[in-house]
Prior knowledge:
By secondary structure, the chain is mainly beta. The protein contains two helices and 40 strands.
Amino acid sequence: MKSVRLKTLVGLLLIITSSNFMITISVDYAIAGSPSSGDIPPEGGSDDTSGGSASGGLYMNYRIPLVLKSGPFAPTLITINTFYDGAPIIFGFESIEHGNETILYANETLVINPLLEPNLTNGSLIQAFSPLQISVYHPFSNSTYDDSFSYSALVMSMWGKQYQSQYDNMKAMIVAGVNLTDVTVTHPGEDTDYYDLPIVGNLIELDVQKGTIIESNAPIGVVFYSLSTINGSFAYTAIPRFLWGKQYFAYPAQDTSGMPLLQGNTELTLSTIGEGETINTITSLMNNPAIYLPEDGVVTLSNSSLTLGEFYFNITSNFVNFSLTIMYNYSINGTAHLATLQYVASEQMTYAEFYFTALNYRNQELGIVTHREESWMLPMISADNGTIFFDLGGYVDTNLGDSVAYIWNNSLGIIGNGSFHGFLLTSPPEKTIWNSSANILFPLNLISYFENTSTFFPSWYRFPNINVREVIQSPKNATEFRRLQLDIIVQNNGSVPSAPFWVSVVVNDTVRITRNLENGLDIMEAVPIIFEEFQGFGLKVWNISIFTDSRSQIFELYEFDNSYQVFVKVTRNLNIIYGGTTVAVAVVLFIVYRITKRLRKLRRRRKTQFDVILSDIEV
């Protein structure tokens, strides 16, 4: 058993005190709870702008794209786990078993069976205040073929606008993240198809092929799947393009005696949208075959050049962001098995520290890939009596690219100070139970517990951040009898594009502007909102308050910078006063001049008349 370093103990103490996680806790299934303090978000629906960086109010939103209730591949069970104690779980559908909400603890697994929930449908909404591990899976139900599959729900704030399919003969389930979503689907060598999703949560199911590109004007969620009684079944969460990258470390299939964990033909598939490039690979035996990935192309790495036990370890590009998808394609006793998952790029996994998942199957393998040098991790396991504890004997130091497998039947998760990528792999423990799946896990720490958080919130989760960058006043000195204009510069300085939101401008307690930015804002995009008004006579002070995301539609990185206040003092317009005085004096002088001139003229006329009279007298 390795000794745990001081920084490990400090880190664990921080975790325990911040999340109320106990070293020894009992495992139970959650039951419905009564409504809590009433701090509950609104139900999903036409007014819900959740998704794609607009997680809806101040909550983390999840939508379940693929829910099967009938047929040979039903039901799809849903399990929910959290790392935080007392996490409210709010349902956007009327749950028969749990009502509108329930409370979930770190030692619980919430299981939802769609056969018992008539209101649960494709695209149904689940909300929480903290990240959730939501696994959707179909357990084995047939002894003659493998009908099992699984995928994880990606939080809507991480949805994107571009996706690509990696295989032929698949279906795609697409869910709208906001209202008025337009989807464009381009199949290789075919015409482009267009679809409208008018309301958030609306979805479409499409046939796709290798290389199909799915794009939209707003964030969407996508799940790819293929269900077959002959060739095996699989489903996987599509990773949006903004989470692709230039470097991947592949998790190898583990060779475990007596435990055939997804052995066989492991296929790595690369794809790109846009420009192509030569991709560099390094194998576990330090061979480095290169492969060209064409524009908008999809390429599967050849296994023919690999020796027994050799696998692709590191895949990189110099310029192009590409995706990596792994398919476990094998057979046991003539029965086909398929399991697939798509990776997030290594450089996109920063601050991913906690993984925690339900025990859905027997003989599961919790796989972890490290994405930072000088990292450590500590597994959490459960004893036979259901107690969860940290396994100090499983403590391990890791470096960039290292992979670790925890293969106990009761493995639950890991905690670590690095940046990690988690996977849950399952295979048939018995010859009559064809249970196989591969599932990406998403981190459960909302912020990093092991990085310096004194000046910012380091987080794997991407958020928009809407605020007022500056207010430009024209003229700089506001005065009477002039037009006052304020250019209010609203920006998104977050890490993902935002969904639509509202901006309100309040002047002296009166709402003067309410504007809907219907297209949201891209990363670092800024737009001006103009307030202008002619200032009449009188001294005054304008108290101007600007509220971004005024209807709390977006889950932001910082919620406390949504207001901005500025005071504008309207002073005397001395130019007008001086000018007016000058004009008045000029007018008076002109009048005096005119009067004087007239008087002089009148005096001359009178004098002329007097001279005539005198002349007449003399005559």
